[in-house]
Amino acid sequence: MATNGAALSRPLGLLAELTHRCPLGCPYCSNPIALDPRGDELDAATWARVFREAAALGVLQVHLSGGEPASRRDLVDIMRSARDAGLYTNLITSGVGVTPKLLGALADAGLDHVQVSIQDSEQKSADHIAGYEGAYARKRALAAEVVAMKIPLTVNVVVHRANIARIEEQVALALDMGAARVEIAHVQYYGWALKNRAALMPTREQVDAAVKAVEVLRARHHGRIVIDAVVPDYHARFPKPCVGGWGRRSLNVTPAGKVLPCHAAESIPGLEFWSVRDHPLEEIWTSSPAFNAFRGTDFLPELCRTCDRREVDFGGCRCQAFALTGDARATDPVCHLSPHHRLVEELAVVQEDRVYSYRRM
Ligand code: SF4
Ligand code: FES
Questions:
Q1: How many whole angstroms from 132 Cα to the centroid of ligand 2?
Q2: pLDDT tens-place string over residues 158-174
Q3: How far is CA 167 from CA 159, 162, 170, 234, in A?
Q4: Parallel, antiparallel, or unpaired: how do β-strands 259-260 and 250-253 relate?
Q5: Checking phi first, is residue 223 left (phi over 0); if not, alpha (psi -120 to 50) or beta?
Q6: Residue of the CA atom closest to atom 1 of ligand 1
Q7: Which ligand is nearest to the CA of 330?
Q8: How far is Cα 43 from Cα 39, in angstroms, rounded to an integer?
Q9: Is residue 32 left, alpha or beta, with left meaning phi > 0 and alpha meaning psi from -120 to 50?
């Protein structure tokens, strides 16, 4: 087995992209530009097998995601099979399409946790960013139902130039919605967000103000809500350990059944992804060419291989290294030690007030 010399670990989480269909059109969507059509989606019986194989492989949590998972009529069956496999289930939803009746059925089938994203604290701006009128109201209504059913709720705030000035208001909204946790997630520039990069990019001053705001809010709301936040890539000195290291902690299964080491892996040309239609999950985890392409740190350039942080960040994100340098084995240029870091600094100051290119199928 070729694992680039890395010891093989067990995955803890599985992201199940049940469908790419979604009523919203967020311009930073993490789905690929080439979306899987409905006719290619795995059926519920195949998902049930995937969940059993995932649990046998050591996976503890499944994130039922999309697109919008509620676009699937068989979502309750899928939820039940995840629970039957013994997995902790997290539903990642836009909030649109999850009626109170469906939520109740999902809860009965084994739903453990709900994560809903908000686009802004102001309704008009939120609906504009989502590309869907009424999204803000639907999300608030769903959150109220989730809390009434005593299901733990996390609110995900995706931050970019249009809403970064309202971190405080968005955390207040998450509190008001009854969330136990709020994730301040700055846009990461892959796929749709890469297309919209100049329209989404915050200024350095905005990022600095946001970092300070988070510190103040953490102190103010300590014990009431957990606030998770990281500095956005293009304004950081060191890269993030993307997905906890390639092929170390998690796997993504696309609607059509391809298994990816991260959500953007298909943006790297030449990688061979195996499908759950053809291989058991364990074989994919241990032996698929895509998972073994960047495991460990041996493939990295000298700069990273001799660096103290190589087991901390694994040289950063492979997809970002490819997107910015054309070489997926390069040091992530977000690292200030990278010979390409100047590129990130140059892109971080490009702000253009363009119309969003919305994510549509
Ligand atoms: Fe991480 Fe490589 Fe930069 Fe070191 S040189 S901090 S390992 S990206
Ligand atoms: Fe693919 Fe970071 S998004 S490795």
A1: 28
A2: 999 999 999 999 999 99
A3: 8, 11, 5, 19
A4: antiparallel
A5: left
A6: 315
A7: 1
A8: 10
A9: beta
Is the CB of residue 265 below 6 angstroms from any atom belonging to ligand 2? yes
| Contact between 295 and 4 (Cβ < 8 Å) | yes
Ligand 1: centre distance to CA 250 (Å): 21
Residue type, 242: C
Tokens 């054309």 correspond to 326
Q: What would the pLDDT profile of 38-89 be if each residue is shown by its tens digit? A: 999 999 999 999 999 999 999 999 999 999 999 999 999 999 999 999 999 9
- At residue 204, what are phi and psi to the nearest 5 degrees? -60, -40
Query: Regarding beta strands 88-93 and 61-65, do their DSSP bridges make them parallel or antiparallel, or are they unpaired?
Result: parallel
Q: How far is the CA of 264 from the centre of ligand 2 (A)?
A: 6
pTM (predicted TM-score): 0.94
Long-range pairs, 132-138, Cβ under 8 A, ≥24 = 132/23, 132/24, 132/25, 132/96, 134/96, 135/24, 135/94, 135/95, 135/96, 138/95, 138/96
d(CA 153, CA 147): 7
